[in-house]
C-alpha cells in the first residue's frame, strides 16, 4: 500500500509527501492504522520498514521507494 501511495503521489524524482501517501492509504484501506504495527505515526512505521528513502524538511516528510532509485 505504501508503494502504491508513493506512485500515486510522487513527483518526477519519485518523492512523495508522506501526508498525501497517508491520505491515499486511508482511502484505500480505512482500517489501516500504524498503531496496529506498534508505531504512533506513519512516518515511524515507514522509517522502521527500511525500504524507503526519507527526507525531513522541517515538519514535511518526503519518501520514495528506495528500490526504484537503486538504493536497495
From TrEMBL:
Family annotation (Gene3D superfamilies): LOTUS domain-like
Annotated HTH OST-type domain residues: 1-68
Annotated Pfam families: OST-HTH (PF12872)
PROSITE patterns: HTH_OST
The name this protein goes by in its record: OST-HTH/LOTUS domain-containing protein
Source species taxonomy: Bacteria, Pseudomonadati, Pseudomonadota, Gammaproteobacteria, Oceanospirillales
Amino acid at each position: 500500500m505504501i508503494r502504491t501511495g508513493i506512485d500515486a503521489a510522487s513527483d518526477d524524482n519519485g518523492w512523495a509527501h508522506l501526508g498525501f501517501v497517508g491520505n491515499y492509504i486511508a482511502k484505500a484501506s480505512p482500517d489501516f492504522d500504524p498503531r496496529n504495527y506498534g508505531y504512533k505515526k506513519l512516518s515511524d512505521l515507514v522509517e522502521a520498514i527500511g525500504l524507503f528513502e526519507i527526507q525531513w524538511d522541517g515538519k514535511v516528510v518526503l519518501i520514495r521507494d528506495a528500490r526504484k532509485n537503486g538504493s536497495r
